[in-house]
Design brief:
This protein is of the alpha/beta class. The protein contains 13 helices and 13 strands. Strand 1, helix 2 and strand 2 form a beta-alpha-beta unit. The longest helix is centred in the N-terminal third of the chain and has 20 residues. Bound molecules: nicotinamide-adenine-dinucleotide.
Length: about 350
């Protein structure tokens, strides 16, 4: 894949976050000139800061809610590719602050779309939404791209709206063929370097690394767990295919794991415990946060049109993740090398 990105200008919004920091490393590894755009460092610790990624990519602190500023950044940089990941991505926080969530996730996405409208050059744009964009009918079959959208909680609803806005711009507003845009919907992502609060694995690691017990919110909730590298590989594959295949413009793609990787939270934590042997948990009572119980994605479209599918099964995805955190606490300083090593290992898998 290197040949597609070598020396290309790649703009990544949300570069200081979990997925964005990995994508920044990966694009840098491929020889791209990366510009990251985010509103700051969202967590402490932070993958972006720990791995000193500002030494290998450019970073512009910008809030995507500010239309004038983001437009100026995009026009000045003249990217060949944009991966739009910036979002208020935590469900719990979306209840505490729905307004910021809507502004960042929906209007922030509209600001990106508006900013690229006037670009004259050819540009590939991948807009990242979520598996949570679908109206959750607690179906046992996986959701496919033609199913109804309609996220329930403020985070999911704001991402559904961002998804609809993108479809609208792609199909009705961008009539120029220089903007090659696609939508990527993925499920619950795991991997080293995620330090977000109220996500299962970071919550476990935070507690277990200091010998404490973690409280699990929804142990029976099933999620399509997949490794961050599999998901990013989906975004990267979509970007490359969009560049060469006109019939993909404006299309949405699910990037979910195989059905076997749909596991409940308890199974995920039990699997983590195989590496973190002293990990303990209790089940939280009176959970007031309303979240969907079952979400599965049908990724047949990505398999047939993009030739993409997850390379890491559930056990491998968890062991990549658990090993990363184990190394982090043993040899913090070498995590950039170790992360690039994981990317190389991943690329070797056929
Ligand atoms: N992690 C998951 O399990 C998951 C699952 C489905 C979809 N997604 C989506 O993938 C994307 C990345 O997720 P993540 O887990 O890396 O999130 P994250 O919370 O780790 O990172 C979010 C990033 O967005 C930036 N950001 C937030 N609001 C901003 C604003 N107003 N202006 C500029 N930057 C802003 C933050 O600074 C950070 O860099 C998000 O769009 C998220 O909705 C994530």
């Amino acid at each position: 894949m290197k040949k597609y990105f070598n020396q290309k200008k790649v703009l990544i919004t949300g570069n200081t976050g979990f997925k964005g920091s990995w994508l920044s490393m990966w694009m840098h590894h491929y020889g791209a000139k990366v510009l990251g755009v985010s509103n700051g460092i969202p967590t402490s610790p932070s993958n972006f800061s720990d791995l000193q990624l500002s030494n290998i990519i450019s970073y512009k602190k910008t809030d995507i809610r500010n239309f004038k500023k983001i437009k100026k950044v995009i026009e000045k940089f003249q990217p060949d590719f944009i991966f739009h990941l910036a979002a208020q991505a935590i469900v719990k926080k979306s209840f505490e602050d729905p307004k910021t969530t809507w502004e960042s996730n929906t209007l922030g996405t509209v600001n990106i779309l508006e900013s690229i409208k006037s670009l004259k050059k050819e540009i590939v744009v991948v807009i990242i939404t979520s598996d949570k964009v679908y109206k959750n009918l607690e179906l046992s079959r996986g959701y496919n791209e033609t199913d109804k959208l309609g996220g329930l909680d403020p985070y999911s609803a704001s991402k559904s709206s961002a998804d609809l806005a993108t479809q609208c711009y792609a199909n009705l507003i961008f009539n120029k063929r220089n903007i090659k845009i696609g939508i990527a919907r993925a499920g619950n992502v795991i991997g080293g370097g995620d330090w977000a609060k109220n996500r299962v694995i970071p919550d476990c690691i935070r507690q277990w690394s200091v010998g404490r017990t973690v409280e699990l919110r929804n142990p029976r909730s099933t999620r399509p767990w997949q490794h961050v590298l599999d998901v990013l590989n989906g975004y990267i594959t979509l970007a490359i295919k969009l560049k060469y295949k006109k019939n993909l413009y404006g299309e949405s793609f699910n990037f979910g794991p195989k059905v076997k990787s749909n596991m409940n939270v308890l199974k995920l934590v039990e699997q983590m415990k195989k590496t973190w042997k002293r990990g303990k948990w209790i089940i939280k009572k009176n959970n007031t946060i309303k979240e969907s119980k079952l979400l599965q994605l049908n990724s047949i479209k990505a398999k047939s049109k993009l030739k993409w599918q997850c390379k890491l099964d559930f056990n491998k995805a968890v062991s990549f993740t658990a090993n990363w955190y184990e190394k982090y606490f043993l040899q913090k300083k070498n995590m950039l090398n170790y992360s690039i090593w994981q990317i190389k290992q991943f690329n070797k898998i056929k």
